[in-house]
Design a protein that fits this description.
heterodimer; A: mainly beta; seven-stranded mixed sheet; four-stranded antiparallel sheet; B: four-stranded antiparallel sheet
């Protein structure tokens, strides 16, 4: 299996521009997660989906952030407009659907390093 | 609410010596516990997990972790450290049977530095 695929790996953009990050989960996985990692705040869960449905978006910092999962093999995280404080590494992860159990580990993609100038 | 504490920002060990990376957790019910490792410029990689059963869990790369319910701890251990083990280690917890089915709570990470 190719693992979780994220694109682009690096993104440099100017403040005010729209940024779209993409993720392809592992085939057969039903849960998908978006995380943000910074030195100051560590690893933060932004949003997660079960069976393409958003379950918890309480970690999304503000309305400038949105995420979609139109099908089981693709998700996007969009920032519009972007700001310098959005600079971070954004990870996508997937796992088998946990339901009310939670014993399935998450598999992380390589991340997208976003720099907003 | 569930939470995880990794009390050490960094652990320094000489190669060949045993290593321990500490983790304590807080949940209102039974926990699922995980350890992940992150190498520079990479995503997190799953190392091992405790779900139920034997308190000593063995994982990848010779790592193991011991679940201690009375101390609410899940320390990561390895009998003999390698320089290549140098990385950032994250502990994570999920509470059993919650409505937010899949959500893990991660610790702040502990940087392991193994020197010759």
């Amino acid at each position: 299996d190719a693992g979780v695929i994220q694109s682009p790996r690096h993104e440099v953009t100017e403040m005010g521009q729209e940024v779209t990050l993409r993720c392809k989960p592992i085939s057969g996985h039903n849960s998908l997660f978006w995380y943000r990692q910074t030195m100051m705040r560590g690893l933060e869960l932004l949003i997660y989906f079960n069976n393409n449905v958003p379950i918890d978006d309480s970690g999304m910092p503000e309305d400038r952030f949105s995420a979609k999962m139109p099908n089981a093999s693709f998700s996007t995280l969009k920032i519009q407009p972007s700001e310098p404080r959005d600079s971070a590494v954004y990870f996508c992860a997937s796992s088998r659907k946990s339901g009310t159990s939670g014993n399935y580990e998450q598999y992380f993609g390589p991340g997208t390093r976003l720099t907003v100038t | 609410a569930q939470s995880v504490a990794q009390p050490e920002d960094q652990v320094n060990v000489a190669e060949g010596n045993p290593l321990t990376v500490k983790c304590t957790y807080s949940v209102s019910g039974n926990p699922y516990l995980f350890w992940y490792v992150q190498y520079p410029n990479r995503g997190l990689q799953f190392l091992l997990k405790y779900i139920t059963g034997d308190n000593l869990v063995k994982g990848s790369y010779g790592f193991e972790a011991e679940f201690n319910k009375s101390q609410t701890s899940f320390h990561l251990k390895k009998p003999s450290a390698l320089v290549s083990d140098s990385a950032l280690y994250f502990c994570a917890v999920r509470q059993l049977n919650t409505g937010t089915a899949s959500k893990l709570t991660f610790g702040t990470g502990t940087r392991l530095q193994v020197t010759l």
